[in-house]
Amino acid sequence: MATGMKVLYEFGPFWLDPEKQVLLRGDQPVAITPKIFETLLVLVRHSGEIVSKDELMKELWPDAFVEEANLSQNIFMLRKALGDTPEDRRYIVTLPGRGYRFVAEVREVVPDGGDVIIASHSQLVVEQSPVAPSDAVPALPAGAKRKFGWKHLVSIAALVGLLTIAAVVFLHRRRIVALGEKDFVLIADFTNTTGDPVFDGTLRQGLAVQLEQSPFLSLVSDKRIQQTLRLMGQPPDARVTPEIAREVCERTGSAAVLDGSITSLGSRYVIGLRASNCRTGDVLADEQVQADRKEDVLNALGRAASRFRTRVGESLATVEKHNTPLAEATTPSLEALQAYSMGWKAFSATGEAAAMPFFKRAIEIDPKFAMAYAALGLMYGGTGESALSADSTGKAYELRDRASDNERFFIDASYEGRVTGNLEKAQQTCEAWAQTYPREWLPHGYLSGFIYDAFGEYEKALEESKKGLQLNPDNPVSYDVLAYNYEYLDRLPDAEKALQLASQRGVEIPEYTFHRYDLAFLKGDKAGMAKEVVLAQGKSGAEDWIAYHEAFALAYIGQLQAANRMARRAVDLAQQSGDEERAALFMAGAALSEAFLGNAPAAQRRAAAALAISKDREAEYGAALALVLSGNSSRAEMLTNDLEERFPEDTSVRFSYVPTLRALLVLKRGAPERAIDLLQVSLPYELGAPRSSMHGFFGALYPVYVRGEAYLAVHQGTEAATEFQKILDHRGVVVSDPVGALAYLQLARAYESSGDSAKAKSEYQQFLALWRDADQDSPILRQAKTEYGALH
């Protein structure tokens, strides 16, 4: 509206005049205090938006300090004046921990001379056609203007007449519901009156699959629904009836509820879909289709879903382009689809282990169910079973023609990420995925979670993690990924804030515990580290991992004996939980610490133990490194060849694992120049976080470390110093990997080699201070003290 133009606001039966500070209900004034009027005005002007308590208090009391109770009293009195009750919040909704939202539709009314211009604030637009009565009022699109004589505004009878005409038009319309960019749709459970339990949960899942093919629609996730149900005092697995769905829809700030029904008429089935405005309950769109047989129900549901997509504003072109029939996009078997649906529900409620039996059952029923294999691969990956994850994901890739376009992107990205490891291809897939489906958060999650990070492009990863979190703010992994990307950039306060933001939203996963431990380590906060250790006790998925991280932290300061005890505990805990691959990874990491700190016999034993359990590529890489560092070059070379043959496309293998191993092998044979040459291939991604650093907490910047050692061997101290300084400049990437501590010692040696004794002394002092409580029989500590003494 133009500056200085008088604006009135209309909502429900109320009129609000900011200039005169008058609230009318019909033509009767409502008695409220000036401060309560100001409260209402702020909320109305931000209708549909969340207004935090802090924002409200700053607006209402800009120059004074008042208690929050004053605001609560204002809201209470305002609700009373508007007739809002706890059972029926038609105007003001409280969002716990976030603030308030004015949920009624608001229209701006601008007197223009003798006329009134009305502009709707609604995010949902209803178009009516055809108009049956000759004097019916045409539909009002968002932002459109319509003029009425000012005398009609003050005439209550005329206003009632207009509303009556509008109601007639509404009841005789064919609706088109235009959803905005940020609008979400919530799918309720189907009402099943057939008596056949196979439809329970199945049709809702099928409808979700069909609608997720749309680049236009955004669905409220099951995870978010379950979180909201808990806030409502409902069990997370409660049936989402239309009534419950409407409240969930309101609480999540979504635009519409979509509920369905299935009834039987003899041997036929009638499937109905209905979309409702979750704030008002108004029906916005409805569809009804018939299926002649039970076997035709999924196809009929697909037809109804396609019609719904066009009714909510999606173009016919995109509906036709992304519209794989439901039986082809999932499975023709209702029983398999039901098991698949139960798998996702179990995953959202409990986690990967609970979901696996359902996905396995879906595959038993339909061995060609591509997305069931993909889901099982995702579950295995989440529990650390990388070999099984690769097998299931590979099978999904073989069957990817039996999936929708959106699902095919997911399968391709998972295959490239988990099976081939070709992150260059994964990047291309995810970028195309994000472009095709701009409302899908997963491609941004992949780009920020393991693709750009492996390339060392942490700024890009950070931006993608922000996009993913914006699209799916209830996904717990997104907060962890955001925190890691801040950590990689050494922005530790921002990393901590990302995890705090998750806690404020009521989101928590075991990974946060050991991530907070690492952040405390990087800050030198021993009390913070101890706190997270206590919090992890007895927690599945946290206790073993935090013990593993403790082992690295102890090895970092030279306390190898204590590190060994903690590593054994981590391995034991992993094996007790039946996670053999994780145990192997822990063994490989412990073997590396032994090797770096000079305990060759123990390093070789642990490497052999890891290899006896698993051939996982990261465990194999860690074991091979430990073996070459501890003197078993022949076995290490065999493992290097195996990695190269088994994973010829893998980005981490090609640019980090194999170059590092081959450079170490030739360095041990006295050919440092050859080692430097072999490491040239690593240069593009040398500062990245390879898969081993994400899965096993080791391997970041190893090509840089070995190149530094090679430069030392050819007495190029300046060049060596440059390499070791890179490690010290990227503490957020290396964290407590032993090379982070040894880089101080190696940098001291590099300065000594280049003739800079003053800098050499400084670096020796830093290393010896770091290792002041190290095992006194450590060969590395003894050697460092000898070298430092020689400088004096």
What labels would you give this structure?
single chain, 792 residues, alpha+beta, Arc Repressor Mutant, subunit A, seven-stranded antiparallel beta sheet, five-stranded mixed beta sheet, 38 helices
Descriptive account of the structure:
The strands form 4 sheets. The protein has a 7-stranded antiparallel beta sheet with strand order 4-3-2-1-8-9-11. The chain is α+β, with helices and mostly antiparallel strands and 792 residues long. The protein is globular, with a radius of gyration of 32 Å. 59% of the residues lie in helices and 10% in strands. Mean pLDDT is 86; it is low at 112-177. The protein folds into 5 domains: 8-102, Orthogonal Bundle (Arc Repressor Mutant, subunit A); 113-174, no CATH class; 178-328, ABC-type transport auxiliary lipoprotein component (Rossmann fold, 3-Layer(aba) Sandwich); 337-494, Tetratricopeptide repeat domain (Serine Threonine Protein Phosphatase 5, Tetratricopeptide repeat), CATH 1.25.40.10; 649-792, Serine Threonine Protein Phosphatase 5, Tetratricopeptide repeat.
